[in-house]
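User: Please write out a complete single-protein record containing the residue sequence and its fold in C-alpha cell form, without commentary.

AI:
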Amino acid sequence: MKLTIREPFFVCIGFMFMLMLLLSMPIFAQGNIIFEVEDPLNDDYGPGTYLYPTNEAFHGEGFFDITYFSIEDMGKKYRLNFTFQNLNDPWNSKYGFSLPLIQLYFGKKGSGSVDLYQEGANIRLDPRYPWNRLLKISGWWVRAYTPEDNHDSLDFWDVENNPANIEDALVEVKDNQISIQLAKEIIGDLENAYVYILVGSYDPFGQDHFRDLKNSLSTWYFSDSGNSNLKFAPRILDVILPAHLDQKEVLSNFAEDYPVILPLIITPPAKTVIYLPILVLALLILVFFIVNKFRPKSYNK
C-alpha cells in the first residue's frame, strides 16, 4: 500500500501532538536507588588507633570496613546494600558473614528518641536527630526495634524466637556485598529522613552485641594501646559520616564523654535529565525524513 500526499501530513500532525505532550511535562531517566553513599577504604580502625584481636578468625584486614551503602525502592520493599572490603565467615553463620555487626538508626526530625536503644556502642547520637526505627544486623539474624521496645531483656539463648527478628527478611551475600530485602513498613517512609550507619564487631556476649576494647593486645577483644583511659572509647570500628566530617577526628573525641555521631540525610541521587532541545531536534529530523520519503516526486517533461 502506498502513502498518498495526505498521509505524511497526518503523520506530521501526530508527531507534533506528541511533541506538545512532551513539552508539557518534565522528563527524567528514572532509577530505583533512592539513596547511596561511599566510605573511604581501610578505615575500620575506629579513631585510627584500634587493632584487631589476635585470634586466627581476625587474621586479615578489612573485615569491618564498609565502603558503600545504598537503599533501593523495590515497590513494596526496600533493599539495603552494604559493601565491605573483605567479608569472611570463620564461624559458619546463617547468612554467610560472621564478624560485622551493623546498626542503622533511622529517624525524622520532631519525633523519636535521642538515646541508643541499648548501651554498648559507646557513642551518642546527635540530639538534633532522634531516631524511631533501628535495624540490627548480624550473620545470624536481622532485627527491628522502636524506642519503646524491650525485646533484648528476653532469654539470651532464644535466638530463633526473638520477637524483634524479621522472619521474612531476604539476605543475600555475594562478592563482599550484603543485600537485605524487607517490607517498607519495617523502616517507614524515608522522605525527609536520615540514617546513622554504625559498624562494630559482633559478639553474642557483648553489650548490645558489640565486641569490647582493651588497652593491650587480646585474643578476643580489640586493643588501643595509645589511650590509657578507655571509659568512653567507642566500640564502633567504622561509621559512614557526612562528607565534611573526618572519622578519626569524630571518634577520637572521647576524653570526657562518648563521641557524638551525626547522621546522613537521605537524599535521592541526582536524576539524569533528557534535554528537551535535543529531543525536539530528533523528532523534527524524523518528521522531515518521513515526509521527504513519501512526498510525490516531480519529473521534468
Notes: Residues 21-31, 272-276 have pLDDT under 50 and may be disordered. The two ends are 27 Å apart (CA to CA).
